[in-house]
Amino acid sequence: MTFTVGTAGGGHGGGGEREGDGGGRGGEHGVVRAEGELDVGNAPELRVAVNAALDAHPTLVVDLTAVTFMDSVSLGVLIGAYNRAREAGGAFVVVCTDERVGRIFRITGLDQVFTIVASPEAAAEAL
Which end of the chain is more exposed for a tag (fewer CB within 10 A), N or C? Predict the structure, then answer.
């Protein structure tokens, strides 16, 4: 499992890498990009990554395009990040393309709570 924490400027996406371009419709926001499987074993690392990003910016994009599995503990971390972003007046967007991961959001009803998009570019536009 790999986590990348960074920032991106509004309309330019970022895929989890640092970009200092700012500007764009949504302004600068935090980005956490995860790869592999999100489960109880690495949920604490995910929590650290999203908290670090939220410490820097109240608006967060969590890029799950390279995630192949997610359990309920990791889902709880995302719910906590969503709540923290909202309480700080920010926004929370999830990038998800894997059908199995997307199914978890649909089954739990979180697809009606989170803004879920198919690309980092769409996430920047959704902010």
Answer: N
Please check whether residue 80 is in contact with residue 43, taking contact to mean a CB–CB distance below 8 angstroms.
Answer: no
Locus of tokens 């972003």:
85
Which H/E stretch holds residue 38? strand 29-38
Residue with tokens 């309920």, as numbered in its chain: 72
In tens, the pLDDT along 48-94 reads 999 999 999 999 999 999 999 999 999 999 999 999 999 999 999 99
Task: Using alpha carbons, list the distances in angstroms from residue 18 to 13, 31, 66, 87.
Answer: 10, 9, 18, 25
DSSP code of residue 3: E
Model-level pTM? 0.84
